[in-house]
């Protein structure tokens, strides 16, 4: 009995009128946790009841604390008939279970009913007393922190990044149980909401256990998804990256965290780690760590001296040089070895992170993806969800082997998704093959110092572009040149990745959102036949999506894609493909060639003319885009580079495959064989259409930029105004002329119009950038296409935006100053040196300014938003991991909410648009209320993972399911930090000071 | 390809500054916006504009319920709206058209009047939807503050969070509706809402119970609302002023005092001298009649008939009217036989202000 949950019901307000006669309500509240229920008194005749209840106490296992939500039901007392439910509030008490997060949940929560929506608010206070549990075999994982953020959270430092954790749980969907026929829609919805809440609690607990097993204390990049498989059940699955994090502002937590691993190391070696090499790679590297100005702390040195396996690895240094003779080769090989050894014991060396601590990412190979078409059948034994596990294991295995083929041992920016239509399910996984620096992967603190040094020898801003694979033994026909930045290593001509642009990457100009959109009709079919048809279509779709991306990238005059996400959606009679990415011009990569059009019938004069006209248009567009995105790379004469660039050819960094239910794996070569890739052959009307569609993408109006990554290359002076939004559109296709072409056009128009609408709506924010633009496509019915977009618009300072040209040195310094992480590792002088030239989100640099004596006033004062006497505190929401112009001081816990809304009076609620508009507004409100109750003022890394909308206008009915998640945080405005220096800055100084004491 | 569903929801609710959603249909609003040249300015298409306008209308539809009790807008959790925008929303929602308010000013805010809106709409060129909103706003404010004690303006401000200016206008509307002053007669058509609102404010300040600052001793027996109803006792007392015109000596003395003082200062002196008795009789009789509800309602008609029109027909300049009224009120203090000086000041002080405001073309 290791926990006591205490709940107090304070008051209600704005309750609905439940008694028509008196226009009032006799409200009381039921508080339920697990199987225990408490009730408040009935507060007679009031719409603003003051219950002021006693503390209701639940004595529960911490396992239950993690799984169960607290359920609060507000009812109207009725003497003669059954009490009427007004609505419910589900409170996830998980944030109260770890010490660093929230200590109390207290505030006004919207009372939600699945049929009526929000009906008033209730004020609740929740506390948890946890007792220490010494049971080793416990089933709970209290204390493991969860973050949706796909980078190391801002006020933490990664000690070790352990790696991939995954889990899934399955259950029957209450909506499809026999009992659903006799119960009300409300009861059914509530059963579903409760079940999913329970399942996600259980899932989180199980993942937590895995993290504890790995000796981690946190999960970063936690992504949880629901698969509504209909008859066959409900799957809740999650992936994440296990880490050991240190809080930067609490020195107390810092020291034990350092000490304990080293102690553990001696006593209990990692179970899954029989290889002793792993924690001794540091000393084996040829460079000495004395050169590094950071003196290792006591704990570090103790650890390294205790490690007696140092010498065992030394010979391997020699071996490394064999594989590549070029400069930097030995290092690369060595790194690969180390990483290999660090990663090999892992079943899946995957990381859900998209942004990394400096030096973590060594090389990037390219995008790896795998898809598989499966037929769903009933999950017979929910406790042993073996089939689903096996499916995913299979896909992950494939991803792993793709990464290997690219000479990489790890996959970063990894994500998984599904698309379900009736009994067919497409499972997809994708990520970026990469070579990682091992220092973060094990007890890397010793090596940390060393690798840091090593890394500084590497050219800054281009290292990750250098190919990780063997030049002589390339996995696909690729065209390599010497890096345009350092001229030492080979780079590919185009780079596709699923990660964010590394902060130290050298970029020329600005980036832009690039989308490939594609539809394919498919015959309606059943079961096996359907699955086969889909499997057969997939390779063609992937190929075309890829070609489109490549062409659009060329058209923009850019050479790399970041944040690439390809979504394939399956419907009854069609497949949709939507790829989004942020195109940039990497300085290290060669200038992309243009696009050439070639006609098939050479002797037709007018045709020739038409072709040349098109060619001119394309050339003009490229030139215009280069100007628009300020892409003006320095001219480099061919001789300097050494190897002349031969005929441009298109190559693919995209290794993909799919397998259908029969496990047949098809490999597809996306490199177009020997065909010249920049040449578009116009041999039929289809091809003509393609070229046209290339040119129809209009650039955003002036003052607008867009990207789907966290940050926009080339813009670095955000101001504090942000607006997160969700926009949903559903179009009905006329069933008459359903050809692939018409479909493509419809889909293209849908997306383009949606973007245009966004630009118009947000025009008051100009100059601004739409960041983290996230499109989701679904096919709710035969002729319906639904597109959901969530993004955040951030304003920036136009004047300062003009100074875009930065030297690499500046960039690296800027990186040093922006990342809190480095504060601990760099000596202070460096921090202060970097100060004058930190143009990037000054938010993150606050600590530096505070800590260093040279914190001179290059601080931009932001005008605080007018916050007059509004009674409701503002809660910001953003899909990004940071808030411009502010510093995140505390993470309060994960927000993971699932809502169902149903109506039987669709017309009265303003039709489908009115219904969904109100529902999404309500979801936002409930997220904000929960964050505010935790004591937070923002949600970062917010994501709407699902928005399943079903309508039946004939019956005047509609239903919608929404699943959202994010991290609740407390942020402090930069300007406030200035004014009130007592609060956070002092706390931030401490780790620096304390560490200083340890080192001396 | 038809759009089945098309929505945009921001974490911060977007409120359109033009506030076109308060009246008219979506297509009216779209047409208005097109005419404003927004398409050219932004390069947007008509479809984009349509979609945006629909969003605003939907948002407004959801907000309207809250706007009926603006403090709710501040406390609700569903829409995150910056305070400045909240204020804008409320201000726009409670804004009214001059043309409309002139039609219903002083009328009982009842179902009967609401039926007239069908006629008012085409007459004023204001959409029926907008007419209804404005009418319902008047009525809602009236209902809420009707039973309340204390300053009318303060009450309105507190319960509807209106700006000072707008709260004063509403106070006037409520005051007029409560006292049912006739404002629709043809000879009153030249007066603007502002003229009436000005008078209402003066009357509220001086002629109501609240004006005297008398706290009712027994709250149950005191059914009159402090700021909304005219002080009955005061109206009753006004009868005493009759002596000023009934007593011939007093009237002559009054006239000679005024004439002596104004001789040479007035451009229309002879007209004034000739008309003095008529004018004085008019003003005093208006006061004496105010005991009857019917005559209270006709206050403005009487003032225009008995004072404004005679002066205007003699082409008195405004400044002469001012000099005359000042002297006319002040001279009474020198009438030894007249004992109701305080009463006279309370009456004339307000009336002078009103008349000066009402005196224009």
Automatic annotation (TrEMBL), chain B:
<dbReference type="Pfam" id="PF05427">
    <property type="entry name" value="FIBP"/>
</dbReference>
<dbReference type="GO" id="GO:0017134">
    <property type="term" value="F:fibroblast growth factor binding"/>
</dbReference>
<protein>
    <submittedName>
        <fullName>FGF1 intracellular binding protein</fullName>
    </submittedName>
</protein>
<dbReference type="GO" id="GO:0005634">
    <property type="term" value="C:nucleus"/>
</dbReference>
<dbReference type="InterPro" id="IPR008614">
    <property type="entry name" value="FIBP"/>
</dbReference>
<dbReference type="GO" id="GO:0070527">
    <property type="term" value="P:platelet aggregation"/>
</dbReference>
